[in-house]
Amino acid sequence: MQGGSGQQGESWYLALLGMAENFRQKNNIRESVRCLQAVFNFKPSQDIEARTHLQLGKMLDIYTNNRDLAKHHFEQSCYIGQNVMPEDIKLEAASLLARMYEKEGNLSNARQMLERYLQMSQNCRHWHIRLLLQISSIHMRLKEYDAAHSYLQAGIDYSRMNSRYMTCLFMLTKTLLYLSEKKFQDANPLLQQVSPEIENWNSASNQSEDPALMQAQKEYLLIFYLVLQVCYYLMVGQVKSSKTILKQLQTSILTITTPDFPKEANFAKNNPYDQFLWLSHDQLCILVYLITVMHSMQGGNMDKAEKYTEKGIQQIQKQQSYQATDSPLISFFHVMFMEHIIQCRIVEGKKEGAVKDIRILCTLLERNPMLMQNHRSQLHTLLGLYAMSQNCLVDAEAQFNAALRTSRETELWCFANLNLAIVYLRSNRLPEFQGLVPRISPDCLPSSSHGLKAAAYYIHGLYAYFSNNISEAKRYLRETLKMSTSEDLNRLLATSLALLGHVFLTQGVPKESINMVTPAMQLACKVPDLAVQVWCAAILKELYQIQGDPKVREAEEQLNLYRSQMSRDDYAAAQLPEHSMITWTDGDFPLAAQ
What are phi and psi of 513, to 5 degrees? Predict the structure, then answer.
């Protein structure tokens, strides 16, 4: 058969396309693919041939596991599309082929593919912008940050001629990259530069542009901007400083989720190049829940962290229910929620729940080799925290050392070292602690986090106390109190007050001790932190006994209640098969055989 031109040639092609789409909607993928393959029997023109290969590649990629055949069709579309118009056929095929390489972990091939076709996309604005964003993302994953910045800057320069919206989006993306590199001195000027652009968004618009869409664009850019601001403050451990911004972010999220808010698909109505989003509104909702959890955890509000974790996971499950495949981003969010809720439950004294959640986390990581590679050190750290809470200090030490071996992040490396230091102090292994001192000295800590630095002061105070250097212990602990108070780090504040109360008790200064322990107990109940509650209750009982205070009976009952709660939870968690994961540091994945 010959592929005719004009109406006759078009009719057979449209008929086959219609049949393919009809079968696809009925989820009969086999017949849909057969209809598309039948197009080649008509010896179609090159543009139809290239487009059909593109459609077949997309169909096979989305609905089947036949990745090799999907790649073959994308490759054919790229090759045949070299000499046909419109140019977007080969550019879309190249983009999707690069995406497949990326999913396989073949980032080098993905980068080469995008570099080649980026050169051909200069006259196709939509695809030039898309490929710039895609290739910068590849370089970010390869940690080739200079190259990523170069492509993002090219996007800023290119967009200035066509789209204010895309210019701001590229600038915010470049800021995001600076934050991921911890280059705060470079991120801040960009944030200050883009802030007035967003603030004056509507006043700078043309009269011909739809005001509702302009407001929608402003809201999306504002959310991106506020996310970056809150994340910056959380990265440097300044919880209190981020509260107002977080509230503004939560208000903006409520705005974009109202039924009458313009749909994302309409963004390009004013300008065809404005159809790019950082995240969809569903993904933004999940992200804001996650940021709220992170903020609550750092500030020591475990109830709020639990509440928003539940909301976030419900949203994730809702999204997964109507998606054909798992989104890598949604899977990442799910992992992050689990990592935070596990820490939360350990602090609250809900270790049975924590160790069950560790299993859920393991299942999520096992499904995704890339997530496993990037979050293995976090898993070891969580297992170390759980083991430490169960007083399995040998296993805790092994887990923290495994985290240090596999860690790629400075903050996590510092966090693991600080917890390892506590293990050594609790085991009375002072020489090993001394070996860690260069890594955990507050003045030399390789971290930008206010909270981690405050924790380092606390640990040095604890060491000074164990070394019977009381004046040094008080000096370090007062520094912790000052830093914790300035940023509302309630859990660290409670722990520091409890230790100071303990120090004053051993010195025989009960009045000073009770002045420390009473607010420590109040904060520990507010968090809540069961271990600190037990500690404070024990100190209060002893203080009341010394003073002959009748409150001693009430304090003893409270202490017994806390200890009973902790003992029951310790036992229940230790009976679970997941508890055995504390011995896993290498080899087969934990629980794989169970």
Answer: -60, -45
Q: Residue 1 pLDDT more than 50?
A: no
pLDDT digits (tens, 9 = 90+) for 512-549: 999 999 999 999 999 999 999 999 999 999 999 999 99
User: CB of 532 within 8 A of CB of 494?
Assistant: yes
Place of tokens 């664009």: 217
> In sequence order, what DSSP letters do the residues of 157-190 get, joined into one string?
HHHTTT-HHHHHHHHHHHHHHHHHTT-HHHHHHH
What is the distance between the alpha carbons of residues 58 and 36, in angstroms, rounded to a whole number?
A: 12
Helix axes 450-466, 490-506, angle to 10 degrees: 20
Count of positions (residues) in the chain: 594
Tens digits of per-residue pLDDT, 64-87?
889 999 999 999 999 999 888 878
Spatial neighbors of 258 by CB under 8 A, at least 6 apart, are: none
**Are the C-beta atoms of 264 and 278 separated by less than 8 Å?**
no
Average confidence (pLDDT) over 342-368: 95
E strand map for 41-149:
none
b/e per residue, 568-585, with b = 16+ CB within 10 A? ebbeebeeeebbebbebb
Note whether 319 and 328 are within 8 A (CB). no
Cβ atoms of residues 35 and 19 within 8 Å: yes
